[in-house]
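Re: the pair you flagged

First of the two:
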Amino acid sequence: MLSIEVKCNTDSAIKGSPDQVVCDDIFWDNSVAVLGCFIVNLDIFTFFLANLEFMIFTMRKLVMQTNYL
């Protein structure tokens, strides 16, 4: 059975004011093989919306690139 752990890293660089946001991630399996990756411009977001959009986008990409979940 394939076991996937997804780690989402965010920081508070835009905390407090809307700003341009870029989202990226790399998907690894438990043997450290790369399953997929992405980078996308999320346009202008507040800190809260950027984190929320990042989580949603990451899960969509994980499903699309690995056919998992």
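Second of the two:
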Amino acid sequence: MDFRIGSRGSALARWQAEWVKANLAAAGHKAEITCFRTTGDREPSAALTGSGVKGLFIKEIEEALLAGRVDLAVHSMKDLPTALPDGLTVGAVPEREDPRDVLVTKGNVRLDALPLGARVGTSSLRRQSQLRALRSDLSIAPLRGNVDTRLRKLDESACDGVVLAAAGLKRLGFEGRISQYFAVEELCPAVGQGALAIEIRRDDSRVAGAIKSFDHTATRSAVGAERAALRALGGGCDLPFAAYGSGEQHRMRLLGVVAALDGTRLIRAEASGPADDPESLGARLAQDLEKQGARTLLASAWLGRPT
């Protein structure tokens, strides 16, 4: 066997790992997938409310990678902390899938058609805060589980609608369930949403060479800028910070949003600049957000999060 791929065991994680396996096969390499049950899988309440521990969904996979039990790890980019363990690096960032959030409802209706006080499920403080900014009457229902679990809970009448990432639904063949796509300007995505990270050992030139062609320069730059902004603000994926980078050719536009959990205050900022300097672009966006009080808002959100 040429390569051993580490992955979580959820349906979406398996799809992502199988995609990498298929692309390795197309290049003439054999690969096998090893699935891991991570801390986030074993302790869903910690993943739901935010425990302050970073890398809940990747820790065990990274340990296996460092120990040489797997040769590469496939993650959802949004699960990857901005600081990686010594000895590891992101070897490739494939082209991004649709980064938007979507609404799935029983009657296939849009957000503005849901009844007053409608119950909408989401496990994300970022989504919760921006949804309440759009409609303050909504009742937000904390929702655990993978994509199929959340759809089942909707079908079992636990809530009127759920908000999920478009990428996951599309990859798993559930695109037909989508009732509404949110524009990034109205519900800004999570950092790295829709993108994959292929993590490898820093000194493993064999694996680096095999996956080099999987890397998509524009996606790597956009995600790099988003992650740089998050790093500068000192936040994690469990706080109500959102960012999305986009652009054409050599220029990039970066949008950032920080919101109060109740939706009563929402800070926006934009930055633009050369696509080949994502770190500087992300840092400038973070500085603009900080000038508007982003750190205070994030601290308040952390203290007010569900426990």
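The mean pLDDT is 92.

-B.
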